[in-house]
Specification:
The complex is a heterodimer of chains A (about 60) and B (about 325).
Chain A lengths: L1 E6 L3 E5 L5 H8 L6 E5 L2 E2 L11 E6 L5
Chain B lengths: L11 E3 L4 E3 L1 H18 L8 E5 L4 H12 L3 E8 L6 H15 L3 E5 L7 H7 L4 H19 L5 E2 L4 H13 L3 H5 L4 E2 L8 E2 L7 H10 L17 H14 L3 H22 L5 E2 L6 E2 L5 H9 L6 H4 L3 E4 L1
Parallel strand pairs in B: 3-4, 3-6, 4-5, 6-8
Antiparallel strand pairs in B: 1-2, 5-11, 7-8, 9-10
Helix pairs in contact in B: 1-8, 6-9, 6-10
The chains are: A mainly beta (about 60), B alpha/beta (about 325).
Chain lengths: ~60, ~325
Amino acid sequence: MITVLLEPERRQLHYPKLNTVLQLLHELKLGQTDVLVIRDKELLTQDRSLAPGDTITVRRVTSRG
Amino acid sequence: MKCRKCKAQAAVALPSHNTAFCPDCYLLFFRSQVERTLHKQRMAKAGSPILVALSGGKDSLALALQLHELGYAVHGLHVDLAIPDYSALAKQFCEKFCSTINVPLTIIELREEGLAIPLIKSRIKRPICSVCGKLKRYFFNKFAVENNFPVLATGHNLDDEVSRLFANTIRWDASYLSDQGPVLPAEAGFARKIKPLYRLSEFEIANFCFLKNLEHVTAACPYSPKASFPVYKSLWNKLEERMPGAKIQFYENFLRDGRPVFAAWAEQQTDLEPCPGCGYPTSSGLCGVCRIRKMVGAGVNGPGVSDLDSKQAG
């Protein structure tokens, strides 16, 4: 299972299987430059592989006022 | 994906530049982008004092940090809007940031000016975001002029600038189109204004903040859901996804081909006169801020206007 934390909403999602960051972005209907994708304090580009047990933070970059 | 410069594992991919960088090389790229903009647009002399408008958000803090690291004498200026559940946090981030990098910070409290945003919101029918922007611009400018800062820098990024240009273009607002750009020269009553991050996107700035471990406010302003700019930004992000580089092309081509035409038109329009209430340059009798003061009963030409009540911190 892969755990995804959406920020700033602080929503948590779970996916049984995702192969790459790009797949995750497609699942979330997000563009490559809409968010930062973070694993263990490391930024991930869209080609990076994901593995079961990963916790991924997806942080929106748009200012909201 | 590998870093273009050192071939290490990439951390940041930039489709608009068709490239990617590792953390260290990305920070060098970011620094060189800001440095190049400052130099190419002749924004400020190396090492000179720069007043930086700080909101507590990622853009303004990233700007202040980068300018500080480039050797400029940064002085932070924060306007406390007195918005519940928001402004106190924004101020805290500014204070913590300035204290960490050891740069002076001045805070202007709108509540002490009789202009707290919630009060104004309760008295007017106009969208509060435009009034809030007007007040911030007014006090940033006033402080810069009265304290002889050669330049006032704001953290406007490429997405801000493109959204604003798009909004002005939708309305064909010749007046606003005539002076939109990364550098506004000093003229009677107005400080010189610069936007050193105008070529960098929100994504690029967010990456910089993450890699620099720069803490900033992420909470949304409770009044922002009615703002129109997020709608434009979302549209442009979709376009950029399909056509990488569309944003910078739209903006740079406007600066080269569009703005001069509108600037020539603006030269033939009414000259600005000092506001009879506060002396701020205006084209319509009382300036916008004095009209707001009058509306909320804060008193035109009161002590808050002529004697700016600001706090020195740090």
